[in-house]
Structure formats: structure tokens, C-alpha cells
Amino acid sequence: MDKEKRTEISNLGEFGLIDMISEDIKTNHSSSIKGIGDDAAVIGEGDDLRVVTTDLLLEGVHFDLSFTPLKHLGFKAVAVNVSDVAAMNAIPTQVTVGIGLSSRFSVEAVKELYEGIKLAATHYNVDIVGGDTTSSRAGLVISITAIGEVKKSAISYRSGAKVNDIICATGDLGAAFIGLQILEREKQVFLSNPNMQPDLEKYPYITGRQLKPDARMDIIHEFKEMGLVPTSMIDVSDGLASELFHICKASDVGVAIYEDKLPIDKQTFDTAVELNLDPITCVLNGGEDYELLFTINQDDFKKLEKHPDIHFIGHVTEKDSGKYLVTKSGTAVELKAQGWVHF
Ligand SMILES: [Mg+2]
Known about the structure:
CATH topology of the largest domain: Phosphoribosyl-aminoimidazole Synthetase, Chain A, domain 2
Structural class: alpha+beta
Number of strands: 13
Bound molecules: magnesium ion
Shape: globular
Order of helices and strands: HEEEHEHEEEHHHEHEHHEHEEE
Distance between the termini: 22 Å
Radius of gyration: 20 Å
CATH architecture of the largest domain: Alpha-Beta Complex
Number of domains: 2
CATH class of the largest domain: Alpha Beta
């Protein structure tokens, strides 16, 4: 390696880094059906396939223990993995749990963390089938791998979106990001004056969305019952714009979404305004909502038309038409994706 050359990871960004790592990784087994580049890998033979996904959560990067209860953290660590399984239209079945602990954690603390993990395992009906524990010098590390089942014909890849498909989003967006801003603000208030108690009661919904997200397995089970397979799907972990970019890139298409169709909760909207943030920017670029973003063929619209928690936010266009947000005044604004900026 050229000793003079040093490229900062921040120059590549998250997606550039993943592209670089995966560039010359080839798969050699016929059972490796889908490798890097979707919410989960797909493996197996025949019609009954498995999906596999891993997520890493680091103290100080993904969570702050000064305002995150350990039980919630344990639940969230499982939920974010289940969310990636859901994004493949698969049903989660097992998880393995890897934990790195520093000496400041007591046995009671580990018990509390595992209570959350076990609660999530029950909630999503997954078995905890293994893992590893080790000591850590850099705070708490949680790495969970989730496995799920799916029929070959039911998989929703990011790459299946077709021109004129309808773009759908579940739930509401931006809440987890705004919730995090409130939690961080109250932490600063507390640090500067420990006699001040955090004022969180005013914001139960958005702080809950940050601290205890729920993967949308309810929607996946409904799809199964109604025999609907989204043409493409991804979960919203990094923000709507970023997820739309992934679908566009994988499917070789463009998108048009409409500002007045974007699902935003009232508390999210009001708190964004209170914090001098643009609510739409929070919906587009705020992460960690763990809702599902998917596309459907227009023929399937009737099946979802009356669903109370699915929103039709736009449609898929030709690649050359680009990626646009149409504002309430009818102006088309080009979408920009950011991804996370931890580096
Ligand atoms: Mg994902």
C-alpha cells in the first residue's frame, strides 16, 4: 500500500464505503442467491429460502445510555434486524446475539438488556439460538443476526420496482429523528443543571419512536394474507430520500413523490417547528423510523386502498426523469440522499 496515500472514510460516505468493500466480493455457491446490496442476503435452494441480516449497534454512535433504558435498547436491537427481514417480505424465525461489555456494566444491567431482547423475541416470535459475549473497552456493543423464511416467489428485492408502480410508505416518518433531537436537548439541559428534570412528558410519541421502534411485521403478515407481493421493498432506517435512492439504483428507475402525501404525525410536525427544523426535511432525511417503503403494481392498489396505515406517496418513473419531490405549490425539487454521517 502506498504509505503517502490516505483517504478519509468520510470522503467515501456510507454508501461509497459499502460499494468499495463489496466491489470484488464474489459468491461461489449456488445457494448464495442474493449477496450484498439488499436489506438481507437470500440463501438456500428450491422454493423455501432463508434471509440473513446483521446489524451492529455501538454505544456513543447508535445509542446514548444516558437517555436509553437498557430494556428498550435490547428490544430495539432485535427490532432493527427484524425490520430488515420484513423488508424482504420474509418472516423472522431466529436471532443470534453478540454482546461486548465494558466493566462498568453490572450483572443486573446485563439482565435488563436481555429482558428487552427476550421481550422482542417473544413479540416477533423468533428463537434466540446463539451468540457470543466478550469484554469491550469502548462501551457497549450489540451485534444481532436475524434469520427469516420466505418463499422464492414472495421475496421483495430493492431491484423490482417498475415504471408506473405506486410508491407506498407505512406509518409516519420523521418522528424518531425529532424524538432524538428532544432527548439530546433535554440531556444538555440536565448536564448544565442536574437539578432540572428532563421535560419528556410533552413528547411521548416522538421519544417513544426513537427509543422503542417496532418493526412492521404486522404489514408483512397482512401482505401474506391478501396474497400481495410488493414489487420492491426497503425499510426506512436512514431516511426516506436515502431509501428511495436505493430502490432507484437497484431498480434502474426514477421516482416522483408528493409533499402533500408524505405521512407526518402532528407531534412530529409541531416539534420540528418548535426546534426550527423543516418538517419535510426531517421526513426526507431523518432516520430510524423502521417503517416500510415499498412499490406495488397498480393492479394491487385496490387491495391496499382502504388500509388505514399505508400511504401512497408517489410513483415510479423512467430513470431519465430523475428523482423528485413535488411540493404543495407544484414545484419539482430534486431529491438528495444523505445516509448517515457518523464518520
Ligand atoms: Mg434496511
